[in-house]
């Protein structure tokens, strides 16, 4: 009661000081010329004296505590003491004098001590204060008030409890069963209330409700790095002359801290929902004692959040239900001890060993052949045939020109190891010389199409980490943003090129009209189908298997070490459903059960390849039947998509595109249309036109106007998304086939000389090596993007500049990793597949083919392509 009365009297005094007292009792702000201060703070002299005495006693205690704290922290006594005499005048005109004592410690903290008032003689002249001194009186009085208010620890604790989840959760620590966790949580609470530096750092590193909740900001992550760095005693390497806080024993926690993520589901209907899996989950980061287990934190956080302690919950009327808790692991030892990590390490190390050994053998053989040829000044002819005496292992190999090359025939083991040669595979990847009948423009289309795919994937796989997802959706509504928000047609471009390439290469080898006239060898046709499929399967699957294992390891690592969370769950799904990927059927199952969400395209492309192979072989038996089947499949594709779109009321808004991937996007009968258009294009170009098409200028201009406008219409016509269900069904059914027709015109025009400038650009030699790496780039780019994003410390913002920077960074890293991946896992297995297929078919390896017809030149032709596995590199 006494303390309450004291506070009441003090508040009355402060009110008068800050109000009427400094206004000379007039209620007006004194002018600059009025320096006299009339104080009527207290009702009587006795009350004033008692208040001053109590102030002196309590503030002296505070000063002593501060002095003791400074002495402990710095090892020194307080560095300065200032005394200020202040005169008060009561309502009766009596004047009193008091001394305000300010004690400043070495850490910069200060306390104010008020001495008891002394009554001055009436004969003493009244002191006239300047404006500056008047402000000192006011500030000193405010300091006294602050000293009293800081004593209300319960009020301070309630503020922390309402705004800082870490404090509120730690304050409930007495309810956990673990004594060590309970003690450390209690010590953390006391340290926060005492404002110890290490505890404030932990509080600062923990997450709090973030702005932007209405637009999807559920990422209350805090700072993982700062939490880990609290215990780091190494000083920052900065200029010594730069002012910085002195380190004290209270800067470091007395126990280990760990960063823990709490996942809670909210029920707010105020937030702008976008049908994304992360939109209902609040992710809260806590810098908490490491001794506390996940179950302890889950129990405490559930209790804290269920009681609506946060002001955020009260303002927005939100309930938060804790789903899971994850304590992040700082060391990597656990990761390398996992069986799948060890298996992946064995694969990588074994492949690296083969690459090193194969490169050494390849370079040595290359040098030996060089020296061998230099030792022969002229060819030796015996009975009109070329001979090389005493060298039984040397044979002549055609170089692709009029010269022959001496090569040493390797053993089978050497030939296998040479397939892993970094030297030869790099040379083959970087080759830019194309044969006369090759389609150069396909390389440009393939590379530019892959850049488009990477750009889309960079944004698509970053959405989980946007703290303003609704802003991203707003940006997607803009006209030119349709390049990304309506970007599914980049996949249709690849489907068209795949169908075109398989048809072009097949019709290049066989004319269906001539083949149909021959007698039918059914066993041979069946064998041809399986040979084509197995050749494709063996070429594409090895790098695919390695990627599945790699992705499983990567997602497992980031799941337990990253403060950001990917909702892909690839570590769980790949362990269960990897076999669907190897059978190329995973696109027939829901996305929620798909290992590697981007691998649906590989399954789709393989399924379309099988259909196209069947149609191609059928065309050599009954061409008209094959043609009718192809047309019916295209019509069926259009009808199936239109009916499905109409039945579910599909409108291709951004959120619906995410939500309806299973229903509209992945299924083969919904996407095969462009592939078949590519097949038809190959037939007309190679068989009907024979790569020749003479058009009048007027016709050429008309076609170059219609088809580009067709593609632009498809890309931009629905940018407002304000369309009817009927129009949407028509658009979805026809747009992909029409897109394929538009791209087909580019291929035909470039191959027939009707687009010389465009063909020259798309056939640019710099595109050729990059085009050969597009398969690995497609495999790696989503994984590369997620590795970059999950390795980040904080959430991202959906702004154009940030997204453009992400696209550039992901593109560069993707192609860099693709080059290494190609050398290790694609090129070697492509060459091994060709070697195996040739052995099975009874053909000798290209490196052992004899050519004794011409031995006029016997030197090494550096342009010789000994490994033909990447001649076309068509997928």
From TrEMBL:
Transmembrane stretches, start-end: 342-361, 439-463, 483-507, 537-558, 625-652, 701-719, 739-758, 770-791, 803-832
Keywords associated with the record: Membrane, Signal, Transmembrane, Transmembrane helix
A Gene Ontology molecular function term of the record: acyltransferase activity, transferring groups other than amino-acyl groups
Compositionally skewed regions (Polar residues) per UniProt: 68-77
UniProt domain Nose resistant-to-fluoxetine protein N-terminal: residue ranges: 178-319
Signal peptide: 1-19
Region Disordered: start-end pairs: 53-77, 846-875
InterPro entries xref list: Acyl_transf_3_dom (IPR002656), Nose-resist-to-fluoxetine_N (IPR006621), O2_lipid_transport_reg (IPR052728)
Biased composition (Low complexity): 862-875
Top-level division of the source organism's lineage: Eukaryota
A Pfam family matched in the record: Acyl_transf_3
Name assigned to this protein: Nose resistant-to-fluoxetine protein N-terminal domain-containing protein
Native organism: Callosobruchus maculatus (Southern cowpea weevil)
